[in-house]
Amino acid sequence: MDEFSYAHRDTSYAGGLNKPNIPEELQRIREEAFASEIPVAADDTLCFLMAQAAAVRPESILELGTAVGTTSIAMAFACPQARITTVERDRAFYEAALVNFGKCGISGRVTAVCGDAGEVIERLEDPFDLIFMDCAKVQYIKYLPRLKQLLRSGGVLIADDVLLYGWASGEAEVPKKRKMLARHIREYIDAVTSDPELFTCIIKAGDGVALSVKR
What we know:
Blueprint (H helix, E strand, L loop, with lengths): L23 H12 L7 H14 L3 E5 L5 H9 L4 E6 L2 H13 L6 E5 L2 H7 L4 E6 L6 H11 E10 L18 H16 L3 E6 L5 E6 L1
Parallel strand pairs: 1-2, 1-4, 2-3, 4-5
Antiparallel strand pairs: 5-7, 6-7
């Protein structure tokens, strides 16, 4: 972890039924990330994301939380017609993602931005067909109003890790130092499941995914 600023729990393949159908180069990138404890999507989450992206057939995708680019690459593979805007605040992750986009031949279809997601989304104008949010979990509820504005009617908003460790669902006791995180995630779940402008389903893929479709 010398090159990157924070670690993540191991999400490498654990023998489940979901095995991503991805190019060999992307799998090599994922395996290197898992070995370095870099936060990249687990197999279940990646399969779900790619299947949804393929079904939606988006022309424009917004991703908040690039890490080293694995989910951007997977969505680009699932949606060859799509252009992707992806935002990452960690400079080392951002630079690694640029290299990985080049390795996988998608650099021309991706606009990568290094910066704070909250600031970047305020500058964006074009509507998006699909938004994937996998950034700071405590900010999900804060970003929701702006993301709804950026999402076209019929578009899909996917928020990752909403059942993180079972804290938000009540399946596991929340550590004292993580109570604020759990509270904000719960607030996000309550908001998207009660919003009259959204149809939402919470799915137990990976550490939980909230799938919302804008009316």
